[in-house]
From TrEMBL:
<feature type="domain" description="Aldehyde dehydrogenase">
    <location>
        <begin position="22"/>
        <end position="367"/>
    </location>
</feature>
<dbReference type="InterPro" id="IPR015590">
    <property type="entry name" value="Aldehyde_DH_dom"/>
</dbReference>
<dbReference type="GO" id="GO:0006081">
    <property type="term" value="P:aldehyde metabolic process"/>
</dbReference>
<dbReference type="Pfam" id="PF00171">
    <property type="entry name" value="Aldedh"/>
</dbReference>
<protein>
    <recommendedName>
        <fullName>Aldehyde dehydrogenase domain-containing protein</fullName>
    </recommendedName>
</protein>
<dbReference type="InterPro" id="IPR029510">
    <property type="entry name" value="Ald_DH_CS_GLU"/>
</dbReference>
<dbReference type="InterPro" id="IPR012394">
    <property type="entry name" value="Aldehyde_DH_NAD(P)"/>
</dbReference>
<keyword id="KW-0560">Oxidoreductase</keyword>
<comment type="similarity">
    <text>Belongs to the aldehyde dehydrogenase family.</text>
</comment>
<dbReference type="InterPro" id="IPR016161">
    <property type="entry name" value="Ald_DH/histidinol_DH"/>
</dbReference>
<feature type="active site">
    <location>
        <position position="225"/>
    </location>
</feature>
<dbReference type="InterPro" id="IPR016163">
    <property type="entry name" value="Ald_DH_C"/>
</dbReference>
<dbReference type="InterPro" id="IPR016162">
    <property type="entry name" value="Ald_DH_N"/>
</dbReference>
<dbReference type="GO" id="GO:0005737">
    <property type="term" value="C:cytoplasm"/>
</dbReference>
<dbReference type="GO" id="GO:0004029">
    <property type="term" value="F:aldehyde dehydrogenase (NAD+) activity"/>
</dbReference>
Length: 372
């Protein structure tokens, strides 16, 4: 019976009409005042915490299927950070909900005034594939704490995580106020056709423009968390070993570079570059061994499309001769080793877009010491 219901659910079409019905139902719940109460907010946050405590092994397994994420990395960066967020919300919730007294003008004497925190209403959250639990549920924590009803649209690029999210929300959360919609472009488009009170999107700038255009039709406020090219500056007056270890953890220890705040490239002086390179090579071997493609401590590339995109960056004629460490690839297993590139041209492909992977260009400048 269960499998028949699952098959029926998969065959159901989620179009603009279905999305409109979703929003209508959630607006009804919000209008009833249910989500505004302190009791509801606390109960849902505690249910979310219970879900994380009871189903962490399932979450770790889904992340292993989607990204081959190491268990420790999943537990720390996906589960533990969410628990911290929930604990913080529970601790601060009464304070956040308390009206704040405001000064009044002499022209309104003897009136008094206060600023009353109010939820937006019905919120749409569109989350990415690289941290499919943390970046899906962290904004859910905020939306619940603020007293909103919401729809979560997880990324189809991480299918095991998306499916588990839908299942767990159905088991642990209040479905009259919190829903999950799975799917790809068609489902996301159907959702964006609706009027929302706020939209939260995490992902790339191309889709962000689509989200903003859809929101603009209804003057809906948006919260966008996008990527960029984040440089790391290495000066000579540092503890090199410690700095390199931290660099490795921030770059490859966080989803193998598939993170929006991952170090994108290094800037250092020409004089210091040889010492930096040598230290990075030694520490990379200490972290991931002589054959990092076989390391259990590195996530894989999420899918063949992203593997091909990263391979294109490496195979660029301006870059292919600049590889000074790594560069090994396994197309069948979707694995790329941590790769260092020295003095890549500024007009190369790898420097024209966010890398979002295990490739790390090192750019050198001529000054003897970097002054910030």
């Amino acid at each position: 019976m269960g499998s028949e219901e699952e098959t029926k659910k998969k065959n159901e079409v989620f179009d603009a009409e279905a999305a409109s019905l979703f929003v209508k139902e959630l607006r009804g719940t919000f209008a009833s005042g249910k989500t505004k109460s302190y009791g509801w907010r606390v109960s849902q946050l505690k249910s979310l915490m219970k879900m994380l405590n009871e189903r962490e092994p399932d979450i770790v397994d889904a992340l292993r299927q989607d990204l081959d994420k190491p268990e420790l990395e999943s537990s720390i960066y996906e589960v533990a950070l969410l628990k911290t967020s929930i604990k913080s919300a529970l601790k601060e919730l009464k304070h956040w909900m308390t009206p704040e007294k405001a000064k009044t003008s002499i022209t309104t004497f003897p009136s008094s005034a206060e600023i009353v925190p109010e939820p937006f209403g019905v919120v749409l959250i569109i989350s990415p594939w690289n941290y499919p639990f943390l970046l899906s549920l962290d904004p859910v924590v905020g939306a619940i704490a603020a007293g909103n009803a919401l729809v979560l649209k997880p990324s189809e690029v991480a299918p095991a995580s998306s499916s588990l999210l839908a299942k767990l929300v159905g088991e642990y959360m209040d479905l009259s106020s919190i829903r999950v919609v799975e799917g790809a472009v068609a489902e996301t488009s159907a959702l964006l056709d609706q009027k929302w009170d706020k939209i939260c999107y995490t992902g790339n700038s191309r889709v962000a423009r689509i989200v903003m255009a859809a929101a603009a039709k209804h003057l809906t406020p948006v919260l966008l968390e996008l990527g960029g090219k984040s440089p790391v500056v290495f000066d000579s007056g540092i503890n090199l070993k410690v700095a390199c270890r931290r660099m490795i953890m921030g770059k490859w220890g966080c989803n193998n570079g598939q993170a929006c705040i991952s170090p994108d490239h290094i800037i250092t002086t020409k004089d210091f570059a040889p010492k930096l390179l040598e230290s990075l090579k030694n520490e990379l071997e200490n972290f991931y061994g002589k054959n990092p493609l076989e390391s259990k401590d590195l996530s894989r590339i999420v899918n063949s499309n992203h593997f091909a995109r990263l391979s294109k960056l490496l195979d660029d004629d301006k870059v292919s001769g600049k590889i000074v460490h790594g560069g090994e690839r396994d197309k069948n297993k979707l694995r790329i080793a941590p790769t260092l590139l020295l003095d890549v041209p500024r007009d190369s492909l790898i420097m024209s877009e966010e890398i979002f992977g295990p490739l790390l260009p090192i750019l050198t400048v001529g000054t003897k010491r970097i002054v910030l």
